[in-house]
């Protein structure tokens, strides 16, 4: 299964994605302001790969003048339902439908890894004003929580995907993976958690691309077994999900 087909798989599950995926802690937006050296209020921001608008909504709440960029039909439709007053244009990080030197900040929440950084980095720099910044971030897995690490191993085995490394890349390697080598960048990692019903947790994990391309039968087989396992750990069917947000901010040279 190609990366492109996995990226487009979200469109068929946009409502599930919007209802069950985690958002981000307020400290993340505080860090973005600190590391970019300017408030979000009044900043002209493009949120690329905006999906259903989870990050876009937070940026708007901070007072940013934000426009969303989203390639997928299903995700864009869900975005318009959730944020009807926020402009959204169709496109992706590899070819931004935005003017040169038009934005103070370009953000990519969970979406940067779907881009080709040989193309998306120059595109972001083209669209940024002098002094502008690129901010990319992900909710990453807290592998030091035993039940979470065990679950991800089961997911990898069931879906036939590569088990992610338990070792986090250092700053240099993280910048290289993000395509930021040669740029002035800073990194911040923020730990947070949310408490959700078991049904929400299962809907969250099954909204990931590994399950969306697997199909209904294979997904339901996994979820049935996983529900039984998690009921033993969380008998009240309330699950604490723990995340580590990995944030990188690069300045336009």
TrEMBL record:
Secretion signal, residue range per the UniProt entry: none
Keywords: Methyltransferase, Transferase
Any one GO molecular-function label of the UniProt entry: S-adenosylmethionine-dependent methyltransferase activity
Domain of life the protein comes from: Bacteria
Positions of the Methyltransferase type domain: 47-135
BP term (GO), one: methylation
PANTHER family reported for this sequence: METHYLTRANSF_11 DOMAIN-CONTAINING PROTEIN, METHYLTRANSFERASE TYPE 11 DOMAIN-CONTAINING PROTEIN
Family statement drawn from the similarity comment of this UniProt entry: Belongs to the methyltransferase superfamily.
Protein name listed in UniProt: Class I SAM-dependent methyltransferase
Organism annotation: Streptomyces kasugaensis
